[in-house]
Amino acid sequence: MTKKILLLTGDCAEDYEVKVPQQSLMMLGYEVDIAAPNKKAGDTLQLVIHDFTNLDTYIELTGHRIPVDIAASDVNPNDYVGLLIPGGRAPEYIRMYDETIKIVQDFFKADKPVAAVCHGTQLLAAADVLSGRTVTSYPACSAECRIAGATWKNEPVVICDNLVTAQAWPNHPAWLRAFVDLLGAKITI
User: Which of 118, 141, 145, 172 is catalytic?
Assistant: First the structure.
C-alpha cells in the first residue's frame, strides 16, 4: 500500500515550495495529492516564483501550472499520513475556506506529521493550531505566528512535536529531511 501525503495549496503558491517537496516525496515512494479549495480534480493551479531585486520585498514572476488531484472539500485526512503546506500567496487566501481549516485541524487532532514552509504558517495560525508551539516562518509572518500563540524563532528550520516549519525554499534539505523523519521513513545516506 502506497503511503499518501496531502499537499494543501492554491493559486499563487511558491513554485519551488510545491514542486520540490512534491517530487522529492514521490522519489521516496509517497503518493502526493495536490488539494485546493474552490477547485476540483483536474483543474489547474498557477504557481509563482518570488525573487529579490533591489526592493525591500520580493517580486512575483509566473511559475508552472499544475493540476489539482483532489478538491479540498473531498479530502479525507484519514487517507493521508502527512500534510504539507507550501508558502507563497496561497495560504493567505486558502485560510478563508472552512474546509482547509478543518483539514489542518484534523491532521493536528490525529497528531499526524505536518510540514509548513514560508507563508504556510498563515494557514496554521488561521486554523488555531499554533498555540504553545515553537515555529519559524518567512520573517514577515512572525507577527501572525506570535499572535496565534506560538513562540517564533529566527531559525531556518524548527521541529516541534508533529510540526516542522521552515523559513523558505532554500531550507528544503533540512526541512524535508525532518518531515521525512516525522513520517517514520529513514534516509540512510
Answer: 118
Could you give the CA distance from residue 34 to residue 167 in angstroms, rounded to a whole number?
A: 21
> What residue ranges do the domains of the chain occupy?
4-183
Per-residue pLDDT of the chain (189 residues; tens, 9 = 90+): 679 999 999 999 999 999 999 999 999 999 999 999 999 999 999 999 887 788 777 778 789 999 999 999 999 999 999 999 999 999 999 999 999 999 999 999 999 999 999 999 999 999 999 999 999 999 999 999 999 999 999 999 999 999 999 999 999 999 999 999 999 998 777
Q: Among 119, 141, 145, 172, which one carries the catalytic annotation?
A: 119
Taking the model in full, what pTM does it have?
Answer: 0.95
- Residue whose grid cell is 531556518: 156
Cβ pair 177, 113 in contact under 8 A: no
Catalytic residue at 118?
Answer: yes
- Please check whether the domain covering 4-183 is classified as CATH 3.40.50.880: yes
